[in-house]
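Hi R.,

As promised on Friday, here is the backbone we talked about, encoded as structure tokens. Could you run it through your design pipeline when you get a chance and send me back a sequence?
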């Protein structure tokens, strides 16, 4: 099985697309860190100092000179101070009560100077840390000062009792644990997102969408996502794309041969026989007009808005446009849009009379004589697509949202459209990925035919013969 190579920019895009999942895991990590901080509060430490008799130290060492190595006498006393006998004798004074093994883990004996021992104990609070350090220090002094000391009687004494404790403050500990949990959650969430992304076959970038069925992307624009009839009505009345997206929609109509010179400027040609429709083409009064079918998948609700937005854009360019919602393979997918188109308020033309909406279940629709463009919306099932019995159009485009369909789904839709005599002329991409730098194989516009200027004069005398 072939594996995709690790691509850092692509991985970052994958993580960003799954930012909700990653955010949830980060929140869980923060909560887990906070819970750990409560269950495992920071341990405070306190230290008691014990001074050893200098004379006995020198006699035991055999020399009064200082050596670079460890002092044997002091090293021996460190072992005695951390012995089981000392710890057992200290257990009755330890708070809270704990077994010998736990006390051994919380006590550390050191030697900051040749004749000084330090006993450091840990506790959940200042009082426990101080009490435990003093208990072990007192136990050691009592043991070595007695006549039954296993290392001989040593006149050790407590130099400084444990009276202060140091360590991480509770609020700092909570913050540290929360941050650690957040980092761990971000790491785990990113790994999960990358694992999901590697197994996700949905197409996200324009080139992948275009290459899946060998058809270029004509335009890619953000779309609205109305959930009710009122939202669709507002979209048809108020939709206005940004300049870059308006240019893409205009270019898409040009690619479909529905817009040429004179785009958006309706007017008469000087006689009553024909009327320029604003798309640059001429339709006669017998009812010829340009028509476009915008096909989308039922599993891709975002792409449904492409047809209405294209119709609203055309009307905004002074083009007499009709938006048609005909029979659908999946009626539920267009239910709210159909409701908006059949509402009493929708019977009056929108966009200053340049946009009309219509819905029908059978038969044909009445197209007014001044209509220049008809846009038909059709939705097919993504698993078993079938083209609904809707009106025939001059051209067909397939609408798809970035990351909403696989190559197999697009291919099935293209096959059934072709079988119904509707060749897919281009693709419209809804909500393109912000990080997508591909073009989707955008075709070049055909240059208008122009007569070539001569580059050489022939058949003309260039000198006078005598």
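Update: got your reply. Pasting your designed sequence below so it's all in one thread:
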């Amino acid at each position: 099985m072939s594996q995709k190579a690790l691509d850092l920019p692509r991985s970052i895009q994958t993580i960003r697309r799954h930012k909700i999942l990653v955010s949830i895991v980060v929140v869980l990590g923060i909560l887990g860190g906070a819970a750990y901080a409560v269950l495992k509060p920071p341990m405070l430490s306190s230290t008691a100092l014990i001074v050893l008799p200098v004379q006995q130290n020198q006699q035991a060492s055999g020399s009064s000179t200082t050596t670079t190595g460890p002092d044997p006498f002091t090293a021996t006393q460190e072992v005695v101070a951390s012995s089981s006998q000392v710890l057992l004798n200290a257990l009755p004074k330890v708070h809270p009560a704990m077994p010998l093994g736990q006390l051994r883990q919380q006590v550390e004996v050191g030697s900051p100077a040749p004749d000084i021992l330090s006993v450091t104990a840990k506790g959940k609070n200042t009082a426990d840390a101080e009490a435990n350090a003093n208990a072990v220090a007192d136990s050691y002094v009592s043991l070595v000062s007695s006549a039954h000391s296993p290392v001989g009687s040593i006149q050790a004494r407590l130099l400084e009792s444990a009276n202060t404790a140091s360590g991480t403050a509770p609020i700092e500990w909570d913050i540290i644990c929360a941050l650690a949990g957040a980092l761990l959650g971000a790491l785990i969430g990113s790994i999960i997102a990358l694992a999901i992304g590697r197994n996700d076959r949905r197409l996200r970038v324009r080139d992948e969408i275009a290459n899946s069925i060998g058809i270029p992307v004509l335009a890619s624009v953000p779309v609205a996502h109305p959930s009710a009839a009122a939202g669709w009505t507002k979209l048809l009345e108020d939709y206005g794309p940004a300049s870059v997206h308006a240019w893409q929609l205009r270019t898409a109509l040009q690619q479909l041969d529905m817009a040429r010179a004179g785009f958006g400027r309706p007017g008469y040609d000087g006689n009553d026989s024909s009327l320029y429709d604003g798309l640059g083409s001429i339709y006669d009064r017998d009812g010829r007009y340009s028509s476009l079918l915008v096909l989308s998948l039922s599993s891709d609700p975002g792409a449904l808005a492409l047809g209405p937005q294209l119709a609203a854009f055309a009307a905004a360019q002074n083009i007499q446009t009709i938006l048609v919602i005909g029979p659908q393979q999946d009626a539920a997918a267009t239910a709210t849009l159909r409701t908006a188109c059949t509402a009493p308020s929708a019977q009056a033309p929108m966009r200053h009379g340049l946009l009309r909406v219509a819905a029908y279940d059978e038969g044909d629709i009445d197209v007014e004589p001044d209509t220049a463009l008809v846009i038909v919306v059709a939705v097919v099932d993504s698993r078993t697509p079938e083209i609904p019995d809707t009106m025939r159009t001059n051209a067909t485009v397939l609408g798809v949202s970035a990351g909403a369909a696989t190559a197999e789904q697009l291919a099935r839709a293209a096959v059934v459209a072709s079988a119904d005599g509707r060749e897919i002329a281009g693709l419209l991409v809804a909500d393109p990925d912000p990080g997508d730098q591909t073009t989707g194989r955008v075709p070049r516009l055909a240059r208008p035919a122009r007569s070539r200027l001569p580059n050489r004069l022939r058949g003309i005398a260039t000198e006078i013969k005598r």
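One thing I noticed while checking it: The chain has three domains: 8-39+170-198, 44-160, 203-430.

Thanks again,
M.
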